[in-house]
Amino acid sequence: MLIVMKPQATPDEVEAVNERIRSMGLTPHSIPGAQRVAIGITGNKGALEPDVFVSMAGVADAIRVSQPFKLVSREVKEEDSIIDVGGIPVGGPEVMVMAGPCSVESKEQILEAAQGVRASGARLLRGGAFKPRTSPYEFQGLKEEGLKLLAMARDATGLKVVTEVKDTETLPMVAEYSDVLQVGARNMQNYSLLAEVGRTGLPVLLKRGLSATLEELLMAAEYVLKEGNDKVMLCERGIRTFETSYRFTLDLLAVPALRELSHLPIVIDPSHAAGRRDWVGPMSLAAAAAGADGIIVEVHNEPEEAICDGPQALPTEGFAEYAEQVRRVAEVAGKQLTAV
Amino acid sequence: MLIVMKPQATPDEVEAVNERIRSMGLTPHSIPGAQRVAIGITGNKGALEPDVFVSMAGVADAIRVSQPFKLVSREVKEEDSIIDVGGIPVGGPEVMVMAGPCSVESKEQILEAAQGVRASGARLLRGGAFKPRTSPYEFQGLKEEGLKLLAMARDATGLKVVTEVKDTETLPMVAEYSDVLQVGARNMQNYSLLAEVGRTGLPVLLKRGLSATLEELLMAAEYVLKEGNDKVMLCERGIRTFETSYRFTLDLLAVPALRELSHLPIVIDPSHAAGRRDWVGPMSLAAAAAGADGIIVEVHNEPEEAICDGPQALPTEGFAEYAEQVRRVAEVAGKQLTAV
Amino acid sequence: MLIVMKPQATPDEVEAVNERIRSMGLTPHSIPGAQRVAIGITGNKGALEPDVFVSMAGVADAIRVSQPFKLVSREVKEEDSIIDVGGIPVGGPEVMVMAGPCSVESKEQILEAAQGVRASGARLLRGGAFKPRTSPYEFQGLKEEGLKLLAMARDATGLKVVTEVKDTETLPMVAEYSDVLQVGARNMQNYSLLAEVGRTGLPVLLKRGLSATLEELLMAAEYVLKEGNDKVMLCERGIRTFETSYRFTLDLLAVPALRELSHLPIVIDPSHAAGRRDWVGPMSLAAAAAGADGIIVEVHNEPEEAICDGPQALPTEGFAEYAEQVRRVAEVAGKQLTAV
Amino acid sequence: MLIVMKPQATPDEVEAVNERIRSMGLTPHSIPGAQRVAIGITGNKGALEPDVFVSMAGVADAIRVSQPFKLVSREVKEEDSIIDVGGIPVGGPEVMVMAGPCSVESKEQILEAAQGVRASGARLLRGGAFKPRTSPYEFQGLKEEGLKLLAMARDATGLKVVTEVKDTETLPMVAEYSDVLQVGARNMQNYSLLAEVGRTGLPVLLKRGLSATLEELLMAAEYVLKEGNDKVMLCERGIRTFETSYRFTLDLLAVPALRELSHLPIVIDPSHAAGRRDWVGPMSLAAAAAGADGIIVEVHNEPEEAICDGPQALPTEGFAEYAEQVRRVAEVAGKQLTAV
Asked: Are A235 and A269 in contact, with CB atoms under 8 Å apart?
């Protein structure tokens, strides 16, 4: 923490700040300048709250120097984390494609989607059984029946299952059927859920909130790691901006920026930001080019008939070619795609 | 829903859209234009999903015409809702001030704050017992002990208690001690919590998410009303923008805009957006001037010693004068403040 | 400037930073910490560019401590500036209302509007003669004829004229007819125009860009003051956010925040943000409550017939009552409105 | 335009809207619904202003159906535009790399940079001679001397020159020395400059404003095309959001979205958004993957010594490898890079 005093600050005001720092068991370091004094603080274990100082007389600003996160930080662990999802490594030299329908709808649908996904070389199957929806009047998912269908598709194809958990009540049920627990963007700061998810020990795909900073995303991940679970994948899925031409603005600078701050793998969801099938392809290639460790994408055997988000789902037909293009771009960016 | 066709759309493409509309049991209405055709849809009960049409050949855009919310809408109920909080009306001709500390810290602290609040003429006491925090390493509240202290302050002063509920697990406990359940900004789209809160039948203060549109805020309220609980107050508390000079940008245009869309009372929280005591006063007056039904503000007997958010808390000393200023401004805006 | 080193930074990397600081003629001050070293810099006259240091090995961050603006800063001039507009003081104890139509359309229109404005006690007349429009196909203003009509209305009513200047070519002409030069939001960073406007010595109303930070607004004002012209009024007129219910989000926290950073008067334009007549009233009262020095608002004798922005214009009929309400709110906030 | 009436609208209110539409020489088309009436309008040549109707009694909303832009629209011209820059085609099957220093600093610097750029296979040289800066105290460019150095580098290497024009006063001078006129983000809505630039007939690189929507960018381009100059390249260079980890948020969804709306070529500037050299590479690959027609990137022979933006400049050493990677990614996305 660095306290910046106003140019007009009196010696008494400076001393009051020093005194307060000492009363917290910390050490002030005065940096006299031509126009003003600044005071560095050392001795703190974690990040300090700037607000304590900002309200004191003579203080112009209090600037945080330490990062507020710990376990997720690359400063704590230098090498990239590779997360083991039932034998599939996420975060290593390969780019993992996770694909499947928005919602599980029926046995035929999920099986056809899973087989298409498998044929493309992807190794994780996504699909929603519990669907948090903006409107209480919209389809909320097949619930346990959906989970069972996912497990059935896993048995049939060997794909690992990624599915969303929306609350602590249904967490035990979801955990029973899934290989990766997805925490949705709207739940990114549902701290009770994060802690419970952490306690399951299962791999977690944590989506960035619509207006969450990278720091907030990392703090949310910290809630999971704090419970002893370090298997967290960070997922950018589009942020909210003033632009209305697309659903969300896909923020690909998050890939190199998160890479620097944290050792956790980074996954991109191009489907929700684009909201349209024909824009998902270019954004998937862009994600691979930016260096993502994984891409989670919506695929449907009959997109025109999908109950939800059909317009943004890629058809399973043609998906192998899509995955091949992702692989080729990822190679240039220094990654590889799993061979089939 | 209005479907806008591209200028180059063929008659077959137009007919395919008409056919799809009919297949949904709805009626298409063609509007031929000089450059292009548009197709109006009637017969739908709620809002349609534009995405179903956007992906069809020849379609340029699909524009939603109906609002997606129902029970919260002023189209459903024309007169303003007045919510009865233990005999105190929120949403009527008076502006309600709800005040108290960020966190309940001790018996002395909450009692002194409550007495100061009461002396100012305010009639609701706010105070946090369960505190969702961005960092897992920060103070998370006194929990049940905090709730008991709030109830004690209520008994001592007659003030009604507003306190935050952060998850469904602790909801029954929080509901036992409080008169108004506050749902925080980060939980605005925690639909499982909203539904449970709705089922308690208690008045709810629903805070707008950091990047929630007014429509999303109203849809979140719809989750509560759908459970048969129409005692919801909508609370604007600052939104996230590019400006970094303050914590959040207080969006006061939300007051007249929500007033037009919905019959529910509107409350403003100036403390969290401002983040600084000396900016809370002007923003409180601005909220009253904009026509808010209530103001929820942080007050502390010793702000310098507060465990959380001290710098943004108003001191109880001087709070009566603050409330008097709010009252005078509200009068000009056509509201009154409860007399002591 | 404070340079924060990474925890793993080597002594050589720290020394390289010290050396670079010394090579710039400045002095490094080391602050050793438990986890990492920070280095304060003193001796610089203005703000330093963080980028020079961020790219050096071992550097985690470079944090600016000094403000980049000078002449506009309250650190340079402690008391509030009062700007003399032909004898009318803007920035003093009174709140100035500046009102008039979006565009000057005809002699009758501007005269009726001016007389309505005058009758309400307002003392400045706004009106556009040159209109920058998003579309090249929209009405671009009456140009010199509009300026002459404004001057005529000034002669008839004694009101001072505020009008927009859109480029350096037409600046001499606009300057000849106006008492205050308005620089629009889209020109806030048109530095060539700012410098020329500064050289006229006329009072300037500088509108904040749609996504300009307060710091950028102040830097734009600095361009005017640098030319020896310190008669600048800072104008908040709504910023761009994700919310689509209104044209722009009116950012009233800018009032106390700018007040702290700068000595220049602060004006609010509630019309462009609201975009609707019935929301302009509440936002005007809110602006006065927040402590604004002035309010610039659109008024039209026949809003329904206005060539541009009619829906957001207040009718001249009823404007005196509006101004009276603003006056009453401003009084509570410690300001007064000019008596008629 | 579609007018949506309120459910409570009376027949008289509906008729008043119909009457107003007819009075504008247009035709109303009523669409009766279960809850409310909507009215389509036909007969208009361009986009109508929604505001005219929104303020009428009984009207809930007025929704624009036609796009406000014309000449830039793909509805007007279906095939992609290819812009001829002195024999170099921008917008065709190849991806053009435009590279060079932020500012022209000296003969040695610009020559070395130009030779490095040329050796990589890039064919356009960027470099600033007039630099609009946020602060009036920062380096504003070498001006005419800089332009002469650029022309000298062009003569020496055969590269075409892209340089920024910041105002109409210096436009004739800049036009004399450059092959492409760059209009900066802060000038995107400087309509006087856009029209003058249009009249030169030179190719234009138009940067998107920090918070400009795609529609506004296209409307700005329309100002240039309206003057008979259709050689406009649209350039995304990062938008302003709440995220503070990078200078700006690079919005790559703009590539497919602009592609659909317009026939003009699309260029991405990854340097200004990233602000850091090591993030420019991944973002350049991502731009190529997204389908951009060109990439404009900062390169410097000695980035550590650059007067401005050194930390975001790529070194000329290694630039050929960078360009080769871009080429390989562009191939996957269906583009090629010019062979050397």
From this structure: yes
